[in-house]
UniProtKB/TrEMBL annotation:
<dbReference type="InterPro" id="IPR010451">
    <property type="entry name" value="Acetoacetate_decarboxylase"/>
</dbReference>
<dbReference type="InterPro" id="IPR023375">
    <property type="entry name" value="ADC_dom_sf"/>
</dbReference>
<dbReference type="Pfam" id="PF06314">
    <property type="entry name" value="ADC"/>
</dbReference>
<protein>
    <submittedName>
        <fullName>Acetoacetate decarboxylase family protein</fullName>
    </submittedName>
</protein>
Amino acid sequence: MPDFVIQGERVALPVEIRTATAASAMFLVRAAAVRSVLSYTGLRVFEPLPGKAICSLAFVRYVDGDLGPYHEFAVAYLIRPPDRGGYGVFIHWLPVNGRFTMEAGRTIWGFPKELAEIDLGFDGGHARCAVRDGDSLIAGLRVRPGLRVPAGSTAAAIDAYTHRDGVLRRTQWSMNPSGVRARPGGATLTLGQHPVAEELRSIGLPKRPLFSSTIDLLRMSFGEAEEVR
């Protein structure tokens, strides 16, 4: 795998995340609206039910990893891969609070990283995150603790898709979480006055999620991005 030089520092692939904490919520939203949002990608939306799509909102506190410590929020959708069966995850919006990880994410994988103010916390099983553009709230997500999930049952390797500068890319993304808690519902989403917030409203948010989860310790690995088309 190739190495990259980001702001004078060499970054080798795969990029390893050794310690992170995360929370997420999955929502059933309007597929027609998601198709409109993702029209720039040429991808097909995965519909678990006719007319419905899956939107995932997540936030991560990176503590120890090859890109340093930072905070991240993600808006992602389940899609049909263009060249294989099953489904993949398309990363649509990925604000971070660090310039190094922003440049690395854009350069290495084509991730749609941009700078934002991200305030998050994990306390007593509760998790919260607020993403702001200056003083303006974009989105806030609170996740309540759920039931403990058996260890080892949630490790996964996922194809993550990105679209940047007219190029669709696929990256294999592996996750090894521990201390996972999950429950139906369990999260509250608040939207501000911002183009991203308006886009989330257009797909049917805020609403009660299908389910939510928190992860005490998340280890991840990101391989090389492959151009799909």
